[in-house]
Write a structure and sequence with these properties.
Blueprint lengths: L7 H20 L6 H12 L3 H15 L6 H44 L1 H17 L20 H12 L25 H20 L4 H19 L17 H12 L2 H30 L10
């Protein structure tokens, strides 16, 4: 998610910043001021609306029921949304629309100059995409981005807790839109063993820390992402590139487990955490270095 040239790195920064601010307020038994929520909601929603929803969940966990007053909702949700729509209208007409017009001219020119080549390229790509994407709930706006047919269990194993944490050797860092299948399997049993250990420890940490307010807030964030990706199927075919929106919850949960454990267990936990960290560092770094050393003309592409 941090390698992909998209908004995910920005989301990670904004969400962890919001998490830190909320954590400090929970620790100090203080509350968000309305303008703080409004600013955070405006900034985080500017990247993606799900980030804004997580900001509102943070405000609810920190401020409690008093956040649900009509005044608070108007000032922290509706006011930022009005400003957000104004900024969107401005940037669309001033920047995005002219850019689309330039791109359209370039595409039109390419089609005229290389009609057969362009037609062949799009035919191959469209065929690939139709064979490697699931069926939506409906063709209506927004709902056409859902997916109800992609297998969920395999998604969780190979992509959600797989590629998000350990890179696959086959089809390394390839793009689903061109050459990567939805599912790629690991070549070794120990990859699945490491994944199982991480998932089990994550689940156990959530249970142990279920009464920790900050962790409960993170669980609500995680639940929101899982509803979007696994239930509705938004972005399910490439769910690993969106892991920056939630994956920081895993080390936070493990840290909570460490904090709440008896001293007699902490040494064992440190050993396990250190081994997993070292393994992931060596595994992912070795694959990344090998990819960066691959000549460009040997990288699969349409």
């Amino acid at each position: 998610a941090m390698i992909v040239p998209d908004h995910f790195a920005i989301s990670l920064f904004l969400l962890t910043m919001t998490l830190y601010i909320a954590g400090v307020k929970i620790k100090n038994n203080s509350y968000f001021k309305w303008w703080q929520i409004a600013v955070l909601f405006f900034v985080t929603s500017g990247v993606t609306l799900t980030n804004g929803a997580k900001t509102l969940l943070a405000a609810l966990f920190v401020n409690g029921r008093k956040y649900l007053s009509a005044k608070s909702i108007v000032l922290t949700i509706f006011l930022p949304l009005v400003l957000f729509l104004g900024v969107y209208w401005f940037q669309y007409n001033v920047f995005e629309l002219p850019q689309k017009q330039v791109i359209h001219k370039i595409e039109k020119s390419n089609k005229e100059k290389k009609a057969d080549e362009v037609a062949k390229h799009y035919a191959i790509r469209n065929k690939w995409m139709s064979e490697h994407t699931g069926k939506p709930i409906s063709d209506a706006p927004l709902l056409n981005m859902t997916d109800v047919t992609t297998p969920r269990v395999k998604t969780v194993v190979e992509n959600l807790f797989g590629e998000s944490i350990q890179l696959h050797q086959n089809h390394l860092l390839q793009d689903l839109s061109f050459t990567r299948p939805i599912f790629v399997s690991y070549n070794h049993w120990f990859n699945y063993a490491a994944e199982a250990i991480i998932v089990l420890m994550f689940a156990f940490s959530l249970w142990v820390g279920r009464n920790v307010k900050l962790l409960r807030m993170c669980m609500s964030w995680f639940a929101l992402d899982m509803i979007l990706h696994l239930v509705l199927g938004f972005g399910i075919s490439e769910v690993y590139i969106m892991s920056a929106d939630w994956i920081f919850i895993i080390p936070l949960a493990l840290a909570t487990l460490m904090h709440l454990s008896d001293d007699r267990y902490k040494i064992a936990l440190r050993i396990v955490f250190s081994c997993i960290t070292l393994y992931l560092l060596l595994w992912n770094a070795s694959l990344l270095v090998s990819y960066l050393n691959t000549p460009f003309d040997q990288i699969p592409k349409f």
